[in-house]
Amino acid sequence: MMKKEDFRIIFMGTPEFAVESLKILYEHNFTIVAVITAPDKPAGRGRKIQESAVKKYAKNKNLKILQPTNLKNEDFISELKNLQPDLAVVVAFRMLPEIVWAMPAYGTVNLHASLLPDYRGAAPINHAIINGETKTGVTTFFIEKNIDTGNIIAQKETEILPNETAGELHDKLMYAGGQLILQTVTDIMNNRVNPIPQKQLGEGEKLKSAPKIFKDFCKINWNHNTETIYDFIRGLSPYPAAYTEISDKNGKFFSIKIFACEIIIEKHKHDAGILFSDNKTLIKVSAKNGYINITDLQLQGKKRMPVKDLLNGFDISGCEIVL
What's this model's pTM, rounded to 2 decimal places? Predict the structure, then answer.
């Protein structure tokens, strides 16, 4: 049985979601010979150079950091080989070339924020909520040539609460993922894993997918029923955020991001997408089987705020939803 100090791990990740997995390995005294993360890049209005969340944590713990722009670069590959990794752990990183993922003696493990094979892709947390799922989870698997298709090592199921946003579920799965990575790495080191192929689909079956989300996808379709719109809004909250467009009485167009809302089930004869407000505390929009009562939003050019704060300084009378 290999000891922790002899079991050499390379960790690859970039955003906050990956930090918990790196942290839990570090705090359980695994030997992390290098942390690979995205190059620093300018961000924000001031275009200041920003380090990834993983890099900030790794720097704080004095871990070796590599930030290649090209994962096939000969110098980078040579440096990896010199590290003699037993295992690579990947959490929220980019696609790896085979020369990288096939290098470690025990292979390369990936953590994915869904119960594979469903919700393969870049945005599994968002799409699970948007689709009205009541459960999801995290999966560890060995990386192979095709994305998110490798043999499954372990899974942990998580309930999606009725009012949970993508941001809240993100944090829940981040911590669950850290625990699953700890279990997975420990079992691999001790030769206790029995990976199984991902489920093969029967005739007529179709996997649920989780493609990357672009701005056009985030626009609300008010022709849907209230439940579908509600799930869409919470599934994109707080980022990248569902939005709608309005025009004011002067014909000027604005974009409004919606972060939180409530469902009002009520029969009405209005067309979908009609905006109603008392200009004090209420903004609601008609949908198929009722209204969406908006509670937290961000008007273009302003900060995120509760509806009543927006109405305190913005006259919404005469505004219309642009469908």
Answer: 0.94
